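Batch manifest, entry 17 of 40.
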Amino acid sequence: IESLSAAIGKTESDAKILGEEIATLQQDVSKFDADLKASKEQRAKDHEAFVAEQRDHSESIDALERAINVLQKQNYDRTALLQLQESAQLPAHAQQMLSA
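Output type: structure tokens
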């Protein structure tokens, strides 16, 4: 009977300790779930910012490519404009526009 009483006492003690460990683990799981939710929300915000920045960069690159195409199509001798600017035959207001 004494050995059974000791075994019961030890089992009750073990059950109490395990119950405390379970409570601690449940708190940890709750904390980890909250951290996971916060991380997912932050990731969604970061992804949204990345997509917006990528879209902006793509639009900028597209605009630059279009500008380069326009400039290449307008590839002509610009030295003629410089010669006109220095010409005395050109009116003063036209010279000012060319020098701007």
